[in-house]
Specification:
single chain, about 375 residues, alpha+beta, 4-stranded mixed beta sheet, 4-stranded antiparallel beta sheet, 10 helices
């Protein structure tokens, strides 16, 4: 087996590191000190820099100005972005563009993908359902009447919806099928309510009341929503991994310098054991992430459907990122809660990622259902 990344994937990492090297996590007000949103918009300057480096079209085909790479390349980019808490709709826009690339019609691809690759068209996805606990595809209904689709329903906690040009909204039809509607932010009947994430980012509650769309803006392909949901989940695992790696690096640097009884606390056995346990968490998060990303990228057969590998990655990411930041806070002592030090920002973002992934127990139950339905030889 060859576990190395391709030259193209390694080039993505090198380009990302060069760009994110100039990003500091303290570029916006602290979520601990700011009521409401820490900023009204995402980092547009950084978004333009990524566009200039051709990193916004990784999953878009070359015929539309993209790189034509895979989910592994995207996860590598997301991993680097999370290390510096980059405030970008990178996951949502890339995953949405990949869905249009794979399942959208010719007219839709030509209208959206070139602009998305250049960073001129920003996409996001409504994936949390009505409450954040129910399936997203059941929160909105979609009825087709002749040449028009009509959408009604509510989606909560939609990231970057106030700043995106299009929101991909899953919806269910009267006959039980799931479609994905590309809803322009200025659509008649669409209302955006203001919400705020644990990390202080501005979210939106989408209320759709008789929103009318042309059929070209609705993706009806079977399984399109399942594949988009799996890509979003795997990308979130990549963000959790990158953030946790950044936090463990901070902890290593701090404990190597902080002295007690005349010695760096990193030399104390109790400290070293905790850091080692968290390192093991990181390696498990990494291995399960690449397994899931590889299954998505290659559509390779396995003992279980791809959803099984995604569930395993989510289990490790959800538990792992929480344990890493909690240990970091413990080993930093009171310094970790200092709002002039960036660790509290990482903790807030980690909690948001953990909530986005959902509890490990739920993923273990889903994995158990898959194991029960697919006999392993």
């Amino acid at each position: 087996m060859d576990f190395t990344f391709t030259e193209e994937q390694q080039a993505v990492v090198e380009a990302a590191k060069a760009i994110f090297a100039d990003v500091t996590p303290d570029g916006v007000p602290s979520p601990a000190l700011t009521p409401g949103a820490i900023a009204e918009d995402f980092d547009r300057a950084l978004w333009s820099t990524l566009a200039d480096a051709d990193l916004l079209g990784l999953l878009i085909g070359p015929e539309h100005g993209g790189a034509g790479l895979d989910a592994i390349a995207l996860c590598l980019l997301l991993r680097e972005s999370a290390k510096v808490l980059a405030r970008l709709p990178l996951l949502e826009s890339s995953a949405a563009a990949a869905t249009v690339q794979t399942h959208g019609g010719t007219e839709l691809r030509q209208r959206i993908l070139p602009g998305a690759a250049r960073g001129e068209v920003v996409l996001t996805v409504a994936a949390n359902g009505r409450t954040g606990h129910d399936p997203a595809e059941l929160a909105v209904t979609a009825h087709r009447d002749g040449a028009t689709w009509t959408l009604d329903g509510v989606q909560t906690g939609v990231p970057w919806a106030h700043n995106a040009d299009l929101v991909l909204v899953p919806a269910h039809t009267p006959d039980g099928h799931t479609v994905i509607a590309l809803v322009p932010r200025d659509s008649g009947g669409l209302t955006l309510g203001e919400q705020f994430s644990t990390s202080g980012e501005r979210l939106a509650e989408l209320r759709l009341e008789a929103v009318h769309l042309d059929p070209s803006h609705v993706i009806e392909a079977e399984g399109a929503w399942d594949r988009l949901r799996e890509l979003l989940a795997t990308g979130t695992c990549a963000l959790a991994l990158g953030l946790a790696e950044g936090v463990l690096g901070m902890t290593s640097a701090y404990t190597s310098k902080r002295e007690q009884f005349g010695h760096p606390i990193a030399t104390f056995q109790a400290v070293a054991v905790q850091a080692a346990d968290r390192y093991i968490d990181l390696r498990a998060m990494e291995a399960t992430l690449w397994q899931a990303a590889w299954r998505i990228s290659t559509a390779a057969d396995g003992a279980l459907p791809t959803a099984g590998d995604v569930a395993v990655a989510k289990i490790w990411a959800s538990e792992g990122v929480r344990r890493v930041v909690q240990t970091a806070q413990h080993l930093h002592g009171g310094f970790g809660a200092d709002t002039d030090y960036p660790l509290h920002r990482y903790h807030a973002r980690a909690k948001q990622l953990e909530l986005s992934l959902g509890p490990a127990a739920a993923h273990e139950e889903a994995l158990g259902d898959l194991l029960a339905a697919h006999a392993l030889s």
